[in-house]
Write a structure and sequence with these properties.
The complex is a heterodimer of chains A (269) and B (316).
Chain A: H1 4-16, H2 19-39, E1 41-44, E2 47-50, H3 56-63, H4 67-87, H5 91-97, H6 101-137, H7 142-146, H8 149-174, H9 177-203, H10 211-219, H11 241-264
Antiparallel strand pairs in A: 1-2
Helix pairs in contact in A: 1-6, 2-3, 2-4, 2-6, 4-6, 4-8, 4-9, 6-8, 6-11, 8-9, 8-10, 8-11, 10-11
Chain B: E1 13-22, E2 25-35, E3 40-44, H1 51-58, E4 66-71, E5 86-89, H2 101-112, H3 117-125, H4 141-153, E6 159-163, H5 171-186, E7 190-195, H6 198-202, E8 207-212, E9 215-221, H7 223-230, E10 232-236, H8 240-249, E11 253-258, E12 261-265, H9 269-279, E13 285-289, H10 293-302, E14 314-315
Parallel strand pairs in B: 3-7, 3-8, 5-6, 6-7, 9-14
Antiparallel strand pairs in B: 1-2, 1-4, 8-9, 10-12, 10-13, 11-12
Helix pairs in contact in B: 2-3, 3-4, 7-10
The chains are: A mainly alpha (269), B alpha/beta (316).
């Protein structure tokens, strides 16, 4: 496996030299900034105030302001990691250098994880750069925010990483870039809420083994809403954070393995 | 027998009984040929003859239905660090348009474990140094071909497999490519170049492998074609069988075309005339058939002679 570090470096370089990931990062900055702003909006007796978060829940909401960006953009980044190769036929060059396809797929999984981690770092930098000055300006204390780093940050970092891998798996399955992005976003933003709502209302069941719900368990229980609260503000119980992580790992590796056997092994024409 | 970890030096390419079917379509049909080191072999055939499919199977980008392809006795995937032994140019579209040319090569160099100075060396070799920092999206087809070739040469391979490398090149570019391939072959490298134009390749290749509809039509040194193409005599005689035998004994390759017609491949008027006179053969017509390489190529690849007869496969 001495070639694996080379393969991973090449995958990281590939993404770095195309505009797609940088656009994703820009959107993460925007969405995180929006999340920071909304965490300063507090309703009190029907009146909305723009004020410094003070309670643990409010501070965790600020610390987890990159949650939406993770749900939306980390899978998209993962999708780009592989579908760019299909779209521009770069996979031919990749496989000519390293024809053993399982290695290439593993390298892409690892590269997606690294990019997911970088995306999380960018999000937290944005939270710090925008959140701390706002907090100080509104009379809050940065030390109160720092006290939430431990409970919130590990789950969020893991969420970004695992969602990027999950996106890579989706990209491996569908190969088409636009279809992959639509599928990744459609599943998390449209289909999952519908499935969860249907099962909840008709069968009074909590469907916790879907990617977004697993992410809520991983990141949501550690951020604003507290254990069992759910990031969407629902009262339904979530999985424990570690089970959420396992579920996300299974979604990521499962789709990648399925993609390998259904599409990645096909003839490259 | 070559061991798995031994490098591929001056390796021959061997295709044995290769067949590839796409549903009901047979793209490659029981194809067998060998490419020798130190020579440039033209892999020729019209569009859709199965050339690209064969090369993709050879490079493990596609799987065969049956048969095998090896380079230096090994499948491509079994060659350690294959890009250091085999360089390939497949098509000029394998680029991200937003990536700069040098970055494209750097990406390949990282994956192949090739040192950065080699990138500048191959860029200079293909004449792209001045345009190396431009995005590939702004490149002409000819420049993309040169960049593909630079990528193939990154690992300084001993085997080169090039699919239609002259596509998009201007006449100067084609002449440059010809010189480059000659120079590389002189180093003892194995070079397989596909093309659908024999005329373009005739000045470049030493050997030819001609395919049509997935089947082998001819294989051997280019001279097997040039000999046949340059000197044939068509004779009308009531003594077809006798003249056929006389010509054969004289070392020619006569073919009966039906009726009183005979085609004597490899013959000239100066050689065949005295033979006919000496043996007292009655002749009604004696015509030199000046068939050029391209028409012979067309004849071979359409599988029918100009007289409507099937063409037998030609091999060394």
């Amino acid at each position: 496996m001495t070639t694996m570090p080379r393969l991973v470096r090449a995958e990281l370089f590939k993404l770095r030299t195309t505009p797609g990931p940088w656009v994703c990062f820009a959107i993460v900055v925007l969405l995180t900034g929006l999340g920071v702003t909304t965490s300063f909006i507090v309703g009190h007796h029907g009146i909305v105030h723009f004020t410094a978060p003070t309670t643990t829940t409010q501070l965790r909401r600020l610390m987890g302001a990159g949650y939406t960006a993770a749900i939306v953009m980390a899978p998209v980044l993962g999708v780009l990691c592989i579908t760019t190769e299909y779209r521009h036929r770069i996979l031919t060059a990749t496989l000519l250098i390293h024809p053993r396809r399982p290695d290439v797929l593993v390298a892409k999984v690892l590269a997606s994880a690294v990019w997911g981690l970088l995306m999380a770092v960018v999000s937290f930098v944005m939270i710090g750069a925008m959140g701390i000055p706002l907090l100080v300006a509104e009379g809050g204390s940065p030390s109160h925010l720092f006290s939430q780093v431990g409970p919130v940050m590990p789950g969020m970092l893991a969420a970004y990483v695992l969602l990027a891998i999950y996106g890579m798996g989706i990209g491996t399955l569908v190969r088409n870039q636009i279809a992959g992005v639509i599928l990744a976003l459609g599943l998390s933003l449209v289909l999952e809420p519908i499935i969860v709502a249907i099962f909840s209302s008709l069968a009074h069941m909590d469907v916790n083994f879907l990617p977004t719900r697993a992410t809520q368990a991983l990141a949501g229980s550690l951020s604003a809403r507290g254990p069992g609260g759910g990031a969407g503000g629902t009262a339904r119980a979530l999985l424990s954070w570690w089970l959420g992580a396992i579920v996300l790992v299974l979604w990521g590796t499962g789709t990648a393995v399925l993609g390998y056997f259904t599409t990645f092994r096909r003839d490259v024409t | 027998m070559t061991t798995v970890n031994a490098p591929v030096h001056a390796a021959s390419i061997e295709v044995k009984g290769l067949t590839k079917r796409f549903g009901a379509v047979t793209a490659v049909d029981d194809l067998s040929f060998t490419v020798e080191p130190g020579r440039i072999t033209g892999f020729l055939g019209p569009n859709g003859a199965g050339k690209t499919t064969t090369l993709r199977i050879l490079l493990d980008l596609a799987g065969p239905t049956s048969g095998s392809c090896t380079i230096g006795g090994r499948r491509y995937r079994d060659i350690p660090d294959p890009s250091r032994h085999v360089g390939a140019v497949l098509e000029a579209t394998n680029f991200h348009p937003s990536r700069r040319a040098r970055a494209h090569l750097q990406m390949m160099a990282i994956e192949a474990g090739v040192a950065s100075p080699r990138i500048d060396a191959v860029l200079a070799l293909v004449g792209l140094t001045a345009d190396a920092r431009r995005k590939v999206g702004g490149y002409s087809l000819g420049m993309r071909q040169r960049l593909q070739l630079a990528g193939a040469l990154l690992g300084d391979p001993s085997v080169l497999i090039l699919d239609e490398p002259s596509n998009g090149l201007d006449p100067q570019g084609i002449a440059w490519l010809r010189d480059l391939l000659r120079h590389l072959a002189a180093d003892g490298r194995t070079i397989l170049v596909s093309s659908h134009l024999l005329a373009e390749m005739a000045q470049t290749v030493d050997d030819v492998v001609i395919v049509s509809k997935g089947r082998l039509r001819a294989q051997g040194p280019l001279s097997i074609l040039t000999t046949r193409a340059q000197s044939s005599m068509r004779v009308r005689t009531p003594e077809v069988d006798r003249l056929s035998e006389i010509a054969r004994r004289a070392g020619f390759a006569p073919r009966q075309l039906g009726g009183d017609a005979l085609l004597v491949d490899g013959a000239t008027p100066e050689a065949l005339g005295p033979l006919i006179a000496t043996n007292g053969v009655v002749v009604h017509e004696l015509v030199q058939v000046s068939q050029d390489l391209e028409s012979l190529f067309l004849e071979l690849t359409t599988s029918m002679t100009t007289d409507g007869q099937p063409v037998p496969a030609v091999t060394r």
